[in-house]
Amino acid sequence: MRENPDIRRTLPAGAKVHHWTAPDGWHLRAFAWPAETATPRGSILFQGGRGDIFEKYLEAFHHWHEQGWTITSFDWRGQGGSGRLTSRANCGDIDSFDSFIADLRAFYAEWEAATPGPHVVMGHSMGGHLILRGLVEGAIRPDAAVIVAPMLGVKSALGPFAERAARILGGVGDPTRPAWKSNEKPYTTETRANLLTHDRDRYSDEIFWQQHNPEIVTGPPSWRWLIQAFKSMRELAGNPRLRKMPVPVLALVAKADGLVDARAALKIVPRLPDARIVSFGKESAHEILREGDKVRNRAIGEIDLFLAARAQRR
């Protein structure tokens, strides 16, 4: 199944891009595409990763919308079209991952009340981490969840000392300064494109949207973001409530992922009481849903099967 590239670079006629106001007054850019059927299949809230924009996932959104799902997404605070928390150009910063969870909790509550069920949440990379954390902490309680290449650990040359090194380096000077200059990963010869996907056409979709609207471009993370990410991942991995979280979860994991540590997901997800893991080998980089057709079609197919079997009203 190879989608028309036009749908990846054009906002759907029935969709609305707007700004949602968080309880503290912060404006988050959001996407809403109601189902166009008298009997909607349900509603999906899809959340991207660090530096992501919802436009990158229009191809997947089209697929689910054609099946009758209402599709919703928002850019995380401090990135994409949801403003910046530092004056340093496009640096992605956050004071605490608790702020992400607070936004998710408030947005989800309004979204769940306003959209048809069953309700499904999906998250890629950092979004996968935050969705799982939101589930474990009870901030959200959907009928089913999908996490794609979840950021439950990160690849680092420093291994177990990475968090300590981030705290030391981030504590010298302004912690909101960029942690590195460019690329998705410091000290690597891999290009950003190779780290994300083997499909050059799909990779170029992101460049198209950035050129179309330069304000949504998010560059490297801040040291503070990095420190808070390590803290949040460590605390989630050690949370005893993982074993009691009742929502069924499908996890798609790329074992050759060069950004997140797939081993962390393969260790943590089995602790959930109702979870299934689908893994990919060297054929997939980090962005599984934006990979070549063979990988993407398998991933979409697995998600569809999971939704048919598990996304029912509770």
TrEMBL record:
Gene3D superfamilies xref list: alpha/beta hydrolase
Organism domain of life: Bacteria
Serine aminopeptidase S33 domain: residues covered: 39-292
Alphabetical UniProt keywords: Hydrolase
Alphabetical list of Pfam families matching this protein: Hydrolase_4 (PF12146)
InterPro entries, sorted: AB_hydrolase_fold, Hydrolase_4, MAG_DAG_Lipase
Keyword RNA-binding attributed: no
EC number(s) given by UniProt: 3.1.1.5
GO MF term (any one): phosphatidylcholine lysophospholipase activity
UniProt KW Mitochondrion keyword: no
The protein's name in its UniProt record: Lysophospholipase
Organism: Sphingomonas kyeonggiensis
